[in-house]
Write a structure and sequence with these properties.
The chain is mainly β and 327 residues long. The chain has seven helices and 22 strands.
Length: 327
């Protein structure tokens, strides 16, 4: 008798970073990290050699790739499976910037595949917490030529040509491939992105590691990847806050994201959606009901609801905020 699918919960991966801190432990209450500077929590990943493991049900200890290999489009949807096969297309992280991240850029699909990678990297950030003086770098503040950019880099005045934003809790930013960007000190955020770990560092604040060495920069690759146009006026996204309903954030060719703030149960109909649904909890806790299964979800955890589901009920334990993502 074939086992029936159910909502899948994952064991996270912890990443020590030179710029990492303790907010994943102190704010998100995930206190079993062995790392002194936990900069990233990979909540759901199918990146090779960095795969999160299913922690619940009969698929426990399987990777998502292995589960897709068993159930095909029942997990991810027909269109997604036709395009990506058993390579899950998205990556979900929590990032704690105790210090500023490097100023960087990501390649688009075309450049990434030329380099032998499967995907480029378009991503979005949802701000979970931001200190008073924290900043986000999101694009250039004017149109540039490649020569002007190189001169600014060589003259150590790169920040003068960057678009700098003030992030607040609940803000979100879409960072398309090719856009220069950085997360500033004091920001805790959720990141949803294409499944890729390719980053080109442009500048790392002259930072040294414990051995006195700076991290590698990727100037040549960055010059090929960069979009030198001024950042658009809508670099910081806007949305309508709706308690106990769905607030749409982004609808892109790579993923669609919504945010839900719930103080009471909400039922959602996905009978016409040909996609998996991922819920990433960014505040509070509760339960996801689907496919005759009830799974608990807490802050910093993700649950993937397979594509064959028709409906989902989200039940808060008092209050819960979730980012909802599908293709």
């Amino acid at each position: 008798m074939e086992q029936k699918l159910y909502p899948l919960k994952f064991m996270p991966l912890f990443k020590n970073k030179i710029w990492g801190g303790n907010k994943i432990r102190d704010i998100m209450h995930i206190d079993y990290s062995p790392l002194p500077n936990c900069g990233e929590l990979w909540v759901l990943s199918a990146v090779e050699d960095n795969e999160t493991i299913i922690e619940n049900g009969y698929l426990q200890e399987c990777t998502l790739k292995e589960a897709i290999g068993l159930y095909f489009d029942d997990i991810v949807g027909e269109k997604c499976f036709d395009k990506f096969q058993d390579n899950f297309p998205l990556l979900f992280k929590i990032i704690d910037a105790n210090d500023a991240l490097s100023i960087q850029v990501h390649p688009d699909d075309k450049m990434a595949r030329k380099m032998g990678e499967e995907n480029g990297k378009n991503e979005m950030w949802y701000i979970i917490d931001a200190e008073k003086d924290s900043q986000i770098i999101d694009g250039f503040n004017k149109d540039l030529t490649k020569t002007e950019f190189i001169n600014s880099l060589n003259n150590k005045n790169l920040t003068s040509i960057l678009n700098i934003e003030k992030p607040n809790k609940g803000d979100f930013f879409f960072i398309p491939s090719g856009r220069i960007h950085a997360i500033g000190k004091g920001v805790l955020l959720a990141e949803i992105q294409q499944s890729s770990d390719t980053t080109f560092r442009v500048y790392d604040w002259d930072r040294k590691d414990e051995k006195g060495k700076g991290r590698k920069l990727h100037i040549e690759e960055a010059l090929e990847a960069l979009d030198f146009r001024k950042a658009p006026f809508d670099a910081k996204g806007n949305y309508d806050y709706k308690l106990n309903n769905t607030s749409k954030l982004l609808d892109t060719p790579y993923f669609t994201t919504n945010v839900l703030h719930l103080s009471q149960a909400l039922k959602k109909d996905f009978s016409l959606l040909d996609s998996f649904i991922v819920y990433l909890c960014i505040e509070g806790s509760g339960f996801i009901h689907s496919l005759n299964t009830k799974v608990e979800i807490k802050m910093g955890e993700a649950i993937l609801v397979p594509a064959l589901c028709n409906d989902v009920i989200i039940e808060p334990k008092g209050y819960i905020s979730l980012i909802e993502t599908y293709m």
